[in-house]
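Quick one: structure tokens for this chain, please?
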Amino acid sequence: MNNAFPRAAPDSTPLPRTIALVGKYNSQEAAASIRLLAGYLHERGMTVLIEEETALNLGSQIELRTWASGNFAWLGAHSDMAIVVGGDGTMLNAARQFARYRVPLIGVNQGRLGFLTDIARRDLLACLDELLDGRFVAETRMLLDAEVLRDGRPIASNMALNDIVVDKGATGRMIEFELLINGEFIYRLRADGLIVATSTGSTAYALSANGPILHPQVSAIALVPLCPHALSNRPILVGDTCEIEIHVVYATDSRAHFDGQVTVDLKSGDYVAIRRSAYSICLLHPPGYSYFAMLRQKLHWSERPKEH
């Protein structure tokens, strides 16, 4: 049932029939939007599936027997599209879960900034009508695969849409690490850490660390040092075919973070191997979506000073 939902002419685009709903956990606002969506999609003749944790969050507020629910693997195997209600954190988790199933994602923003969840709740049903009728802007975003190795053996692996960060952990002391790209030694650095970010993640943690903003069409990976001891160590961009290794030389409480949601403890001698994932995700935006307009809005570019 489930295939990628590519952009095509309206008369040739297979319209979605089965839609998964995913909501921010423990959020009454998200629960209200999920109830609204479920009823609306049902009226349009769609099959509605609800992610199991989202269903638990709804509790007695919805007749759950009306809708089938299951985990992300089950949803991925049976859905044509997923609507994610929450903030960017909810979308990041859903993207990692759905990537291998090639389920296109629509983001409804009930968080704060919402770089990935771009549909406002007040515009939800109007935007959804257009999307379900095949009028949308499809955008592909790359992901990163990472493997943590200890004594040459993998101890953990994960995927990230935004970034993979190796940092000093909770202690105040810097870590010391070596950076290799395609097996070539680049530098040895003492710092608070290193952010390895996709173009999607360039507007997240990397942005606050003075990294560059990358347009989603730029196939590059940003390497952004966190508070480097040597001020000459600046952010650099490398091609998305590069294989990156971060070798922890010395650390007392170092950790690797995947999208800021999954954490692996590191020891001196461990290293993190990072490469572009074979999987990607497809985001569906309403007609008229513009990446630069989104940046102007979220980052308050060209905003006039308020008059007193």
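Helices lie at 28-43, 52-58, 72-78, 88-98, 124-132, 205-208, 291-299.
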